[in-house]
Structure formats: structure tokens, C-alpha cells
Design brief:
The complex is a heterodimer.
Chain A (H helix, E strand, L loop, with lengths): L3 E10 L2 E11 L4 E5 L6 H8 L7 E6 L2 E2 L7 H6 L1 E4 L11 H11 L5 H14 L15 H13 L5 E5 L7 H16 L4 E5 L2 H7 L3 E5 L2 E6 L1 H5 L5 H12 L1
Helix pairs in contact in A: 3-4, 3-5, 4-5, 5-6, 6-7
Chain B lengths: L2 H39 L5 H11 L4 H11 L9 H26 L3 H10 L3 H16 L1 H14 L11 H12 L2 H29 L14
Helix pairs in contact in B: 1-4, 1-7, 1-8, 2-4, 3-4, 4-6, 4-7, 5-6, 7-9, 8-9
The chains are: A alpha/beta, B mainly alpha.
């Protein structure tokens, strides 16, 4: 049974159709990469899956349960989905440690000591434990993103979403984040990553889902997609991204 | 009248000035905070009312409102003490200004951080308490010190409703001693000292709660 099963997902903003029937399965232990140019609906897809956006139609099944509709406990759903953002979105008034403990204290109701223990373990996993006392503004971009990943993992989510995790990072830091994601993949963490960064995609996955104009155009290895694919939109994307 | 008498009388006035300033400032912060919070997190039907309050109270002179409250309310059967009249006029006017200060500070909280907190599964109220409020209070400190200073400098109006604060004492003393210039000079220095101490206290708070490493982006003129 997939962790997340997406069927014919539609999202409209007024007249504008952002997602036009997306189908996607994410299985346990997957590191699924969704690629596409800006405006292809990648971020909207992620936000529909944890109900930050209301889907307009279709079906989303999360661990066997339908999560569409008004009677779903959205907050419980979000607690089982980690979310890592492009701009890191660390809470700037909280230390690295407090960033990670916040949800543990407020949502899992752990004691201060338990939360600290768990948070330090997650920071250790991301090689950030020695920075626990620092504040977000004192960290580099790559370090911030690692803290954000630790923060997401601390809740023991069923899946972690990455929304363009490296587009605010230089190539070296991209490598740093990619290495971390690969390690988490080896450890069995289920991940769904949307990006238009070919470098990142190449470093973390050999198979990607190509999203364009709100539909999945192809699911194949990057090599297959980039080698003169018969789909014109895919050819155009890779020609553009390769220049970049 | 000895020098000591003058000092004692000014000291008594100083106490009233501090009392009025404190009561009106605390009222301003509390009411201003409540307004800013409600505007931010819901009660949409209350919003036009709060907007109207912030709009109208910023436009009324303190003295006019003070007289409406102190002399007007008894005529409809509401007896107000002088201090309460100050709180209901100066305090509520400063609340209107502070609610705008708080609103501006809330708008500088990074929208991404709020989204991240929601994506974690925190409730709207938890997001407000844990993310927006602590940042907002830090961002509004400069605006708050401004408003406290304004309240301090409006506090002499209290004498018009019979509170013998420092300016009133100075008027009495200058009539009794014929040393008006010296006395008003001393009073001016006293006001400045209060201001300086207030500023010092806020700077301590600012330092205590400063976010390490955070430099808010400023545009340089070079």
C-alpha cells in the first residue's frame, strides 16, 4: 500500500487550472522527485497533499485513508507530514534547538527534557548538533536547510516533503543537502521532493516524475528524459535548464 | 518656603506624574495588544468596529476627550475619578496608536515562518503565540518607547481634572516663590530624567530579547 496515493488531482484558482488530473504513488522508502518548470504546479501539488491548499477535485489517500473533505483532521495530517521549504522558514527568534523542539513540545506534548533529547538526536543525524545553541541568522544556507530537515524529521513523519529545497543555495550547499537526502533515503525515510534543479535531481534520484501544465508527462530516469525525448515540452525544459 | 518644601512638593507631583503615565501606558499596551491580536486572528465581524476605533481615537485631542469623559459622563450618571478619566482618554488614545504599531510589527513577521508553523500542524492560536507574538513584541519596542514618551508629555493634562502632578505643583510653587524660571527649569529636567530612565529600561529589555545574529535589512545610502 502506498503512503500517498494521488488520483486525478485537480486544483483550480478561479478559472485557472493549476493541476489537471495528477496521478502519483509514493511508497514507503521512496525518494520521489517531481520536476517541472516554474508554474508547472509542483508546489501547489505539495500544498494540496497536506491541505495547505484545498484541492478542487480528485482523490488523495494517505496511509489508506481518504484525506479529502471537510471532516478530515487537517492538523493531525500535517503532523505526519514533514515540510521543508525553499527559504528554510526557520523561526528566527528561536535557537536551532528550539526550532526543533517547538512542535515536539506543543504537539507531541513532550517534556522539555524529552523534547531536547529527541531534538539533539535529530540534529546529530544532520550533523548540526554542535550548532544547537545558535540562531538561524548565524547559520549558512546549507546549515539552515539541515536544521529545517531536522525539524521536519523530529516529528517522525510518515513522509517528508521538500519544496525546492536547494533553489536558495549555491552548488556546494546543494551538494551538502543532496548528500543528506541520500543518507536519509538509505535510512529508509520516505521523501517527496519537487524541484527544477537538475543538479539536485541528478544527485538524489535516478528516476523523476516530470510535471507540466498540471499533468504528469513522464516518469523516467533523468538520462532518458534529457536524451532527446520525443515530448517537445520535456526537450524544451532540459534545453533551458542545461543552459542555466 | 524652604528649598526642602519645594523639593517635597515637586516630589509629590513627580509621584502623580509617574502614576498617570504608568496607568495610561499600561492601558495603551493592553488594549492596543488586544485590538491588534483580534484584528490578526479572527472575529471578522469586530474588525470594522476596531478599525473605526483606531481611526477616530487617533484624531481626537487628548484634552477634548478628557473633558468629555470627566465632565460629560457624570451628566449621564457615570461618575469617573480623575485617574480613570485620564485612563479613558489618554490611555485609550495611546491604545489606538499602539494598535497600529503592533499591526505594523505583525506585518513584518515572515509569512514563510507562519506557513511553516501551519504546515507543522500547529493551530492558528499556537502559531500566533509561538511565532507571531514574540517577534511582534520585539519589532514594536521602538514604537512603544515613542508612545510612552508621548504619554509622559501629555500627562500634565491631568491637572485640569484635579490631579496635582508635577506641572501643577510647579505652577503653585512659582506663584508662591516668584522663582518661576528656576522651578520650571527643574521640572523640565525632571521630565527629561524620567524619559532617560524609561529609555534605559527599554534598551535593557531590547538587549535581553535581541535575536542573536539578526540584522534587519537596511538600505544604505552609499
Amino acid at each position: 500500500m502506498p503512503v500517498i496515493e494521488v488520483r486525478d488531482l485537480v486544483k483550480k484558482f478561479g478559472e485557472q487550472i493549476i493541476l489537471n488530473g495528477v496521478n502519483l504513488d509514493i511508497y514507503e522508502g521512496d525518494l520521489k522527485v517531481v520536476m517541472g518548470s516554474s508554474g508547472s504546479g509542483k508546489s501547489t501539488l505539495l500544498r494540496c497533499l497536506n491541505r495547505l491548499e484545498e484541492p478542487s477535485g480528485g482523490r488523495i489517500v494517505f496511509r489508506g485513508e481518504n484525506i479529502m473533505g471537510a471532516d478530515v483532521d487537517v492538523r493531525a495530517l500535517r503532523q505526519s507530514i514533514g515540510f521543508v521549504f525553499q527559504q528554510f522558514a526557520l523561526y528566527r527568534h528561536l535557537s536551532v534547538l528550539e526550532n526543533v523542539t517547538l512542535a515536539l513540545r506543543k504537539l507531541k506534548k513532550l517534556s522539555a527534557a524529552e523534547a531536547k533529547h529527541k531534538a539533539l538526536a535529530e540534529l546529530e543525524r544532520l550533523n548540526m548538533a554542535s550548532h544547537a545553541g545558535k540562531y538561524p541568522s548565524q547559520l549558512s544556507g546549507g546549515q539552515k536547510q539541515r536544521v529545517a530537515i531536522a525539524r521536519a524529521l523530529a516529528m517522525d513523519p510518515a513522509v517528508v516533503f521538500f519544496d525546492e529545497p536547494t533553489s536558495a543555495l549555491d552548488p556546494l550547499m546543494t551538494r551538502e543537502v543532496a548528500d543528506m537526502m541520500n543518507r536519509l533515503h538509505d535510512e529508509g525515510v520516505t521523501m517527496l521532493c519537487v524541484t527544477h534543479d537538475l543538479k539536485l535531481a541528478g544527485q538524489i534520484s535516478d528516476k523523476v516524475v516530470f510535471l507540466d501544465k498540471g499533468i504528469v508527462r513522464a516518469e523516467a530516469s533523468i538520462a532518458t528524459l534529457s536524451q532527446n525525448h520525443d515530448d517537445e515540452r520535456i526537450r524544451a525544459f532540459f534545453a533551458r535548464e542545461a543552459d542555466y | 518656603m524652604s528649598f526642602l518644601d519645594i523639593v517635597i512638593q515637586l516630589g509629590r507631583g513627580l509621584g502623580y506624574t509617574l502614576l498617570v503615565t504608568l496607568c495610561c501606558s499600561v492601558t495603551g499596551v493592553l488594549v492596543g495588544l488586544i485590538i491588534a491580536c483580534i484584528r490578526r486572528i479572527g472575529f471578522y465581524w469586530l474588525r470594522p468596529l476596531l478599525d473605526a476605533y483606531a481611526y477616530v481615537f487617533r484624531g481626537i485631542p487628548v484634552l477634548v476627550l478628557l473633558f468629555i469623559v470627566y465632565f460629560g459622563f457624570p451628566s449621564i450618571g457615570l461618575k469617573v475619578t480623575p485617574l480613570l478619566a485620564m485612563v479613558l482618554s489618554l490611555g485609550l488614545i495611546s491604545a489606538a496608536y499602539l494598535s497600529e504599531v503592533f499591526r505594523g510589527a505583525l506585518n513584518s513577521v515572515d509569512a514563510d515562518e507562519i506557513l511553516a508553523a501551519e504546515a507543522m500542524g500547529l493551530s492558528r492560536l499556537q502559531v500566533f503565540n509561538c511565532i507571531e507574538l514574540p517577534q511582534m513584541l520585539r519589532f514594536s519596542l521602538p514604537g512603544m518607547i515613542n508612545e510612552f514618551t508621548t504619554v509622559l508629555k501629555y500627562s500634565p493634562f491631568a491637572y485640569t481634572v484635579g490631579i496635582p502632578e508635577i506641572t501643577k505643583q510647579a505652577m503653585t510653587l512659582s506663584a508662591a516663590t516668584l522663582h518661576g524660571v528656576e522651578i520650571y527649569f527643574a521640572v523640565g529636567v525632571l521630565y527629561f530624567l524620567i524619559f532617560r530612565i524609561l529609555l534605559f529600561a527599554v534598551q535593557l529589555i531590547e538587549k535581553r530579547y535581541r535575536i542573536p545574529g539578526l540584522v534587519l535589512k537596511q538600505r544604505s545610502n552609499i
